[in-house]
Amino acid sequence: MNKFRLLPLFAAVSMALALPVQAQSLVDLYESARGFDATYLSAKSQYDATLARAAQAKAAILPSANLALNASRSDQDVTPDGGKKTELTYGTQSATVSASQPLYRPGNWASYKQGIRQVDLAQAQMLAADQDLIIRVSQGYFDVLTSQDSLTFIKAQKAAVAEQLASAKRNFEVGTATITDTRDAQARYDLVIAQEIAAENDLRVKKIALDQLVGKNDTQPNPLAQPLALPALVPNDANTWVQQSETGHPIIQQAQIALDVAQLETQKAQAGHKPTLDLTASYSAINNQDGSSNLTPGSSRANVGTIGLAFNLPLFAGFSVQNRIKETLALEDKARNDLEGAKRGVAQGTRTAFFGVLSGQGQVSALEAAEASSQSALDANKLGYQVGVRINIDVLNSQSQLFQTKRDLAKARYDVLVGGLKLRQANGTLKADDLQGVNALLVK
Fold first, then answer.
1. pTM for this one?
2. I need a labelling partner for 57 at 20 to 30 A (CA). Which of 29, 109, 170, 340 fits?
3. Is 53 inside a domain boundary?
4. Is 84 a domain residue?
5. Cβ neighbours for 212, distance < 8 A, ≥ 6 positions apart
């Protein structure tokens, strides 16, 4: 009887899982993506623009000043009845400095408060963009590791099937096995070859996607350290995660700011009925000087300074103010309903993500047990094949089941790690420091 040796299988797995040269950690690739990813940089530019736009609203409550200069020259021909024509040329120059300071303008102050809230909105939007980048980098990182593991296990399975095929051929040649065993092994070997080609292409595609995200060529993520103990989910209560999301989630913050801005917009509309009062001041210097004439030349200069108050009381605007108030009140109700919808959506998303992580942890435990059982089943089938109570297809099926379980287990572990980050994104508490915990589980 042939002896089945697992040494080639373990050697193939060890070589495939060997740490690549110049591998990058999750934190390293995240930092690279912050300076390269177009979506994130676009959000950052929008953040800067929003800050600048918010600062513009302050101008409505600050004083304004203007300088006006004017110069003109006139030529006149005057001919009285029966008299002699007179030619007159003269010039006028003037300079005026004017300034005003709003004293009472409720609409301007509402605009200024809206600008302050726009700063908070920009910060919430930037936080959401940063959280999105963390998830996209993490997902891309572990997608590559998943594809690498899949290819590794397929290659190991190919080596095992090749050994089984060689054994079936030898047994057929010596007459201890039928041609069916050889054909079964050959069919399984051909199938594994096809799976290997597909896995290689999948890994290539996943690497391209990660390279494009982080702006590096031929990225090599660090694999998970072995043995691996997945971190516990703390706190282990869905309601606690939901409560954490009620105040700090960027989506809820944006909806709350939208409501505040809508309420201020109503105040601006109501200001259409209210008077305004401005402090005004101006200083003018006017110089009139004759250039030439057949009359007695002369010139004059006048300096005029004024200071006063400008009061305006709206009386009637064709019901535009009343209808504008109705519009803003309806938009205010819409913003209030949007806020409630955002809270409900965040709560549902948080619960879904929480139970997804719990389910993933349960799957990891079940697959770890299944891996041990599959290994035992493979050993038993190999022994049974040696003594003649099992056929070759039984061994091949056991090998396939074992490697499929290994692939599923590896993917389930990655899904739990990414799921933990997605849970923090779902309740709005995700930050870059959370990557350190995942990074600690990787090979240094």
1. 0.83
2. 340
3. yes
4. no
5. none
